[in-house]
Amino acid sequence: MSKQSIFGRIAQLAKANINALLDSAEDPQKMLDQMVRDYTENIQEAENAIAQTIGNLRMMQEDHDEDVRTAQDWGNKAAAASTKADEFRTAGNAADADKFDNLAKIALQRQITSEQEAKSAEPTIASQQASVDQLKDGLNKMKEKLNQLKSKRDQLVARAKVAEAQSGVNDALKSIDIMDPTSEVSRFEDKVRREEARVRGQQELAASSLDSQFDQLEDLGEQTEVEARLAALKAGQSAPQQGAIGN
Question: How many structural domains compose the chain?
Fold first, then answer.
């Protein structure tokens, strides 16, 4: 994956509006799970690519530093050769002096070449460093966004569980309303009361019947007494009449 494509994907994902995406999703939890997987995979790819980019940058920096050191070394060698040439020239040895001056020139030429190589690499190194900084920043934003996604997902799952539990409670309450045990007890109590009333009615009826029988006995006794008295009355009335006739 090229640096540009990685950076473009990082920018796209980092700008994603999670809330807007969730509002339009049919199943927000599944969408969040998929987004977490996508972010995780892209972060891993980005980390690998950025690591490679950083590795290439460090190699370029090492080459640049080596060119700088080489240029310094050739500068030192040029200075040493020039000094040696001056010493030979002072001693009247022109041939050796020219020889070492030529060596100094060669060293200076190589110094210039190394300096040019170092200088030509500096814009590329600076650009590469800026890209690495941008990629690191984008990667950090992706990681922050991933944490937000995970947090959103966890919150959503927790809310879904609460809603599910509340729904179960509501269903249970509805069932209680439909089959209220207190209502069953009340109906049973009414049944018991009706049974008690029926028994009291039977008892009262039985008592009423018994009283009626006693009343009949009392009536019978009164009638017997009346008949006895009537007989006695008749007997008393007839006795004097018979005596009078005998006289």
Answer: 2
Assess if residue 245 is contained within a domain. Answer: no
| Rounded to 5°, angle at Cα 211 from 208 and 216 | 125
In this structure, is residue 244 part of a structural domain?
A: no
- Single-letter residue type at 86: D
Q: CA–CA distance from 99 to each of 75, 83, 84, 93, 111 (Å)?
A: 17, 12, 10, 10, 18
- Residue 215's Cβ-side half-sphere holds a number of Cα atoms within 13 Å equal to 6
Is residue 99 within 8 Å of residue 89, measured between CB atoms?
no
Domain that holds residue 61: 3-179
- C-alpha to C-alpha distance for 12 and 25, rounded to whole angstroms: 19
Q: Which residue would you say has higher pLDDT here, 91 or 187?
A: 91
pLDDT tens-digit readout, 100-123: 999 999 999 999 999 999 999 999
Helix axes 3-14, 28-90, angle to 10 degrees: 140
CA dist., res. 163 & res. 152, Å (int) = 16
Cβ burial of 150 (10 Å; 0-12, 13-18, 19+) is middle
| Side-chain half-sphere CA neighbours of 166 within 13 A | 6
